C-alpha cells in the first residue's frame, strides 16, 4: 500500500518547490552582488569582478550585474570586457539611454589609450564606434580626426570636416580647421576662401589672420617672380608664376590684370578677356577690411583693366581681320569701343572692317568720327582719301559724274600726292564738260607721273593742236605744278609733325603705299569704265580655320561663365607695360593691315 510520501508530487507542491529554489538562487546571487559592491568600495576590483561573475551565473538576466561588472572591468582598464558587458546591458534594456552613452565613453577611453600608445588605426576604430553611439557629440569626432591626421589621411579629414559644416552650419573654428587641411593638401585657393569666410564670422581670429598673411606673402613672392620673368621675355614662365600667385590669393585684382596682360601678349584672347573682366570686378574688394591706400589705387587699377580689356578686344579683332573674319572683328571692336570711347584708333580699325565688307557709309562714319577725335592724324587722312575715292568710283560707274568729281576732290584734299585721284577726277570733269578743271587734273597726273599714258589722250583732246611738250611747258602747267608741290609739301609737314608729337601710333602696314582702286581704263570707246578694287586678304589655311575662330569669338562674347561668384576659382599685355605700375608709357594700339595704305 502506497504511503503519502511515495505518492507523486502534486502540481501545487512542484510549483512551491520551484519558487523555493528560485528564492534560494536569488538570495545567493544577491549575496554575491552585495559582496561585489563591497569589494568595489574597497577598490578590490578583481574580487568584485569575481563576485559579479558568480551573480551573473546564478541570474544572467539581471542588467545591473553586467553594469557593475563592466564598471569593475573599467577600473581594471579592461575596456574590451567592459564594453561587452555594457553591450549586453543595452540588449537587455534597449530603452535605457544611459547605457549606450556609457558604452561610447568606454570606447572613447579605449581609443585614447591606444592613441597614446601610437596605435592610431586601432584608436580610430574605437573613436569611430564611440561617435556612432553618440553622433552629435563632437569631441568623439574630433578624436577620429586626430587619428586620421596622425595617419596622414588628410582627404578623409577634409570630408569629415566638410560634413560637419554641412550638417552643423558654418563656424569659424571649423572653417579654420578645414583651411589648414586645404593648406596641408596644397589646395591654396580653397584654403584662402575658408580663411576669408572664417574672418567674416570672427574678424580678429589670430590663427586665421596669421595663415592668411602667409598666403598673401607667398602670393606676392610669386607675383614678383612673374614680373621678373615677363621683363626678361619669358612669358610662359611668367604665366606659371602668376598662376601660382592667384592660387595663394585669388581675390587680388592686380594679379588678374597682370595675367590678362600676359594672355593678351600670348594671343590667348579669350582667357585674357576673362581675367581682365575679373580684375575690374575685384578692384577695391580684395582687402578685408579694405585699406585706405588700396581704395586710393583701386580706381586707377580699374581704369587700367578697362583699357587693357579694350586693347585685348582690339588685338582679337586684328586677328579676325587678318583671317578675313570682318564681321567678327566688328563685334569685338564694338566691345572695345564700349570700354574706350575716346580712342580714335578703334574707330579707324572698325572703319577698315566696314571697308572690307564694302559698307562704305559705315566706314566713312567711323573715319570721320576718328578725325573728330584726332584731326591732325595723317593715318586718318589717308583712309578718308581712299574711302572718298572708292565712293567716287561707284558714283562714276553709276554715271553720277558731278558727284564722283566731288568725292575725288575730297580724296585729293586729304591726300594730294596720289596720281590716281587726279586721273579719276579729270575723267569725271570731262564727263560734265568742265574742261578747264579736267585739263588741270590731267596736267597734275603727268607732273606726278610723267610716264602715265592713260591721261595723254584726254589731255590732247582738251587742247587740240598742241603737243604734249607745249602743254607741259605752258604757264598753266607751271601754275598747276607750283600749287601741287605746295599741297604735297604741306601734307608731308603735317605728317612729320604728327610723328614728332608722339601720338599713339598704329603698327606699320606690311604693304607699300598704293591705291585701293584700280586705275581708270582709258580706251578709244566713248564710254569709259571705272571699277573699284579692294585687294583680297590672304588667308593661311594651315594656321586657321574659319569655324574655329567663329567659335572662339562666340565664347569670348556670349558664352563666358558668370563672374559674380564668391567661391574659389581654380585654374582658368599691354605690349609695352609688363606691370600696371612699373612703367608709365602710353598705350599702343595695333591696327589692321589696312587696305594698302602706308600709315
TrEMBL record:
Segments annotated as TPR repeats: 63-96, 104-137, 344-377
UniProt keywords, alphabetically: Repeat, TPR repeat
InterPro entries (UniProt xref): TPR-like_helical_dom_sf, TPR_2, TPR_rpt
Pfam families cross-referenced by the UniProt entry: TPR_16, TPR_2, TPR_8
Coiled coil: none
Signal peptide: none
Region of interest called Disordered, as start-end residue ranges on this chain: 507-527
Name the record gives this protein: Tetratricopeptide repeat protein 16
Species annotation: Culter alburnus
Lineage: Eukaryota, Metazoa, Chordata, Craniata, Vertebrata
